[in-house]
Amino acid sequence: MGLPPTPAFNDSIKGRISSELPTPSSANTGSTGDEGASRPEPSLVPLVLSDIVQGVPFEKEIFGARIPGTTSTVVVQVEPDRFHSSRMRQDHTGQVTFDWLDPRVPEDERLIEQFREIKHQIKTDTAELHCTESFRNVVHQLEAEQVRSGKTRPSSAVADDAYRIFTSEQAQRKFVDGSKASMSRRDVFNAERDEFDLAVYRTVLGSDLVFETDGEWNIENPAGVADLKSSLRESNFAFAAADTTAGRKVYFSLSGGARVDGLKLAIHESMGDADEISIDDLTFIDAKRRLAKYTRGTPDATGQSSVQMNLPVLDPECNTNIDRRYDAEQILAAVIAREAREHPVTGSIHVNTLLDACDSCAGALGMLQTRTNQPVSVVYHRDYGVTTANSRNPAVRALQEFSASINELHGHLITGNFAQMYKVGRRLPTPQMLGALTDSLVEANGSYTNTAQLAIYGNSYYLRLLGVLTRTEVVRSDKVSDALLSPEGRAYVSMLGRRVAANPMLARAWASLLHELKEAGVPRDTLLEVLLSKPSGSARCFYVELLRAPHLPRDGRDSLVAWLEEAELVPGIRELPHYVSLRRTLTLATRLLIQVQPAECLEFNDVTLKEVLVQAREVLSLSALDAADNQRLANRLREAMPTITIAEQREFREMIHDTLKEEWQKVIPDTEPPSHIATTLIDDLGPSYGRALIGGRKAAVDAIIARRTAAYAEFQQRNPTASQKALQDVFDAQVREARKEYRTVLSGASDAASENLTTSASRAVQSVKTTLAKQQVRQQVEDAAQAARSEAAASAKSQAEQASSSAAKYAAEREAKSMALDAARVASLQAYTEANKAAKQKAEAHVRIDIAAYARYSVKHETKKAAREFTREYLKKEAAARSEIEIHRLNARLEALRADPRDVEFQGRLNALRGLPTPNELEIRFAMLRAPEPCSSKLSSGHAFEPAR
Question: How far is residue 808's CA from residue 817's CA, in Å, rounded to a whole number?
């Protein structure tokens, strides 16, 4: 399809105001500010967004929210966790630019929270909310707190604060946290300290359900609590002990509705069908039976003193809402508040709950303090956390395993059971856990799904937790390094290299773990081996994956490398060959030098073990993981329930082709219509036909998906320890039910589909007629143009012939004159040419004569010169030859004279008489002969030499 494997969202997207998208009216009317003044009502802006995903051209119709109190700021949500904002300044094309909001930036986070609050306000029916018991109780609670603080505010401001608790996640969290903080005590159950609680449990539930094994009570062990909850049909159990003017009372109750009907507790054997029984100085009251009696007698008897509330779930990661008014704690609070009017509470109220109080129950207990004016203390045995990894999604299942370990560590930390902490801690740095978390990191590919976001958070807290456990010596550092060097660990570290750059939270967690390992004494060579070890397959080591991963200007790659360099964990070029190949050494060293830019070092804060566990438990809560797991069901349902079926699309295309052919034959018989007309009609009419069908079905399909996913989520929450098979059975059952409802929607919408098809057909007929009419008009215009062109051509031809005949004579005269002038010019030119030619020939003749004379002179001169040179050389050779002969003769005589001195002397005298030269003269003459004068024609004797003839 040409789509990228992972959608890359643009930081800046385009948008324009849509005139076709109807704007729904806000349900929020008459909201006021903190001082009672009317606040500007948030408005919705219909928009058409484009340029959302790189390389994928498409438009998305969406509503933006105008943020009150800002200068024309509009925020839009393009994905579940991706938001953009704009000041709505239009460019020359009428478009505005929406910039990405980074949730890590405080100002951007504030805009995101305001958008979510507006979104909840739009969905909330204010009039209906004001009539609910929960809203009235929250208003009464805020008014009571106002009286205690001594502040005076208008009732409209208090009502507005209550309204924000039901529509703003931040305001609701503040209210719940305040309720929990107001408790006089809030601890985990301890058998030695809480002996009274243990006695109540054994009295109400019996020794079969509450027992001791090997010195440990089952209700102080997470596994025992889970088993007890299973025996109670997955319901929560709670009791409240209070001193009243009528004596000390113990109220107890189970949560849930019809699911626990008929469930008998041990105390019911003695109580029978009554709702209370006295044992010693205590009065045990079944609060559920007592509340049912009050409701039957006077349905509104609990109106003014009711403390029950049902806060909506505003967490964007959770799509389910469960009515919390039937939770055990709320039933207890409602009955105690009701009976406190007749028998006031005289001392503190002690509440014990098997599971920690949820947000709504915490608010109810806070209101109970206000109603009775007595402090409330809470002891719980287990919080609402993950205990079982049962998801069919490998990524979610890995996070469930880690979350279960977190909950166990948190429970053991609170109870001080360090032996169990060591045992649980040893399960974290294992190849199996690293392999499972690698699957979750694979899902974190830049998408904005619940699973992808939870994968980043989960792995960040995992690395943080490993570092803290190493620092506190719960886990040995060598165990952590060995796990990271295992095959699964190498794959995990390699995957971290791909993800840390785009996720600064993950980068800080990874740096904190390396810091703790280094501080714990792990050698630098071992840490370098962790960072440079290559896993099996096509993956590469941490540094290679880090440098070849997509890099953005605002990511944490450069700052992480700067921290690693400061920590001396960046290998030098001489160290790299010990860990990687020579080729990889050169490549990695070059990339580290070229790709990494100077940046500030990554910073992270040291955290305590309790802080990490609390934060991780809040993020990886049961509801968040269930919501991520529910996404699989939602995707499956969307695949099984398309808003437009293939058969309807085929029928629409066939209708277009049939209509076009029929209308075409009426106008131009025995011809086939061009294919491009049908394509154009489908492109023009298809979107409106699709919108007509989607508009009638999308809401119904979305409602089916919401109901089915809510039912699946409720089963998960009610059965957190369900097996994978049980979950899959429920999953398949929800898909079957959704298909049944979908078929009902399709059958009910058949008339609408037929009507839409008929409308499209009539529009197609009109379009075909318009097309044919245009074609006929076009043909007539072309015929008229052709006739006009023919007439114009004939007229032009006639005029041309007349003009030609009239101009022929004039042309002939001009031609004759022109020819005469041309002849004169030709004759003159020819004469001039002949004269030049003759002059040229004469000049060439003179040149040839001069050249011949010069040649003769040159030949004669050169001949004489050559003869002289030859004679000179010949004489030189002859003189040399004669000199050699004379020298030879003289040498012979000289040698003869030297042979006998007497002969020499005699010969000298004889020579003197003869006039012959002496030996000395011979020597002189010999020397002269050795160097004769050049070009000489005479010998040394003075005789002339004539050359041979």
Answer: 14
What whole-number distance in Å separates Cα of residue 574 and Cα of residue 81? 45
How far apart are the C-alpha atoms of 28 and 123, rounded to whole Å? 9
**Is the pTM for the entire model greater than 0.90?**
no
The pLDDT assigned to 650 comes to 75
**Cα torsion at 218, 222, 224, 225 (round to 10°)?**
100
Helix 557-566 vs helix 504-519: crossing angle, to nearest 10: 10
Strands 345-355 and 185-188: unpaired
**541 burial class (0-12, 13-18, 19+ CB within 10 angstroms)?**
buried
**pLDDT tens for residues 836-857?**
676 667 766 776 676 666 666 6
Helix 359-372 vs helix 169-181: crossing angle, to nearest 10: 50
- Tell me the longest C-alpha to C-alpha distance in the chain: 192
82-86/96-100 β-pairing: antiparallel
575 by Cβ neighbours in 10 Å (0-12 / 13-18 / 19+) ranks as middle
Cα distance between residue 829 and residue 867, in whole Å: 56
Distances (CA, A) of 627 to 316, 320, 321, 442, 624: 9, 8, 12, 19, 5
Measured between its terminal Cα atoms, the distance across the chain in Å is 111
Which amino acid, one-letter code, is at 500? V
pLDDT above 70 (res 785): no
827-to-813, 820, 833, 837 alpha-carbon distances in Å: 21, 11, 10, 15
Quick one: average pLDDT of 388-401? 80
- What's the CA angle centered on 212, arms 206 and 215, to 5 degrees? 160
- Does residue 307 contact residue 368 with C-beta atoms inside 8 Å? yes
Sign of CA dihedral 256, 262, 265, 268: positive
What token pair was written down for 661? 């052919």
pLDDT for 908 beyond 70: no
Give every CB contact of residue 170 below 8 A, 6+ residues apart in sequence: 113, 117
In degrees and rounded to multiples of 5, residue 521 shows phi and psi of 100, 10
What is the DSSP code string of 280-337?
TTEEEEEHHHHHHHHHHH-TTTTTTT----------TT------GGGSHHHHHHHHHH
Closest CA to 439 of 500, 387, 495: 495
Neighbour tally for 344: CB within 10 Å: 13
Mean pLDDT, the chain, integer: 78
CB atoms inside a 10 Å sphere around CB 866:
10
Which amino acid is residue 609, in one-letter code?
L
Burial of 838 (0-12, 13-18, 19+ CB in 10 A): exposed
